[in-house]
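Lecture 7 notes: from sequence to structure.

We start with a single chain of 239 residues. Read the sequence below before looking at the structure.
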Amino acid sequence: MNKPVRTSKRAAEDRGQRDHGWLQARFTFSFANYVDPDYMNFRALRVMNNDSIQPAGGFPSHPHRDMEILTYVIEGRLEHRDSMGNGAIIEAGNLQYMSAGRGVTHSEFNPSDQDIAHLYQIWLTPNQTGGEPRYVEKRLTDQVIQNELSLLFSGDGRNESTEIRQNADVYFGHMEPDHILAVPASTSTPHAWVQIISGAATVLGDTLQAGDGLAIENANDAFDIRANAESRLFVFRLS
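Now the structure, written as tokens:
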């Protein structure tokens, strides 16, 4: 018998926040010197940072290891350079994946002299340590079909998704108002997190606005997401 489904909403206004002048950041989970014992992580989901980087601002070269890092640009552009030799400008609507593996350094800057770069950076802890660092870019404007739930990353690389170092599925949805998306059932990843990037949606009786996240435990069965407005969102299925 399945355990009862439990949900917990992390409202956008309740997130941690820091203003560094060049960077305004909102933290779903504890990060750097923001610590909330009730929000350290959710399963493998460790970081859900919603950043606004001022023109010409950014993070100088810094190291990571043993972390799966996703960066989704909502508005503006983000310039990336790393020790693997990658250099790119990530445009709005596109997503970058970097598996730090045994170690990588990278920098991230807003290349514009007038426009803010608004983005999400998301970390998942891997289920293995070490390994060669990896880097992938995805043009979601090409890969995501409106009113469909698109599998972007998975632990097994199925259905042309990118394989990651974690037993997790990462979906993206772009929905029209009143459209319903069904999140597939899963016994191997029975928990879920829904993060609303823009718009508003209803999930399992909870109404979510932009910036809200919803933790869903014991969601073995399929469940629906109904858009209350044009919406963009991430869905994470987690073990």
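The helical segments are 140-143. Keep this in mind for problem set 3.
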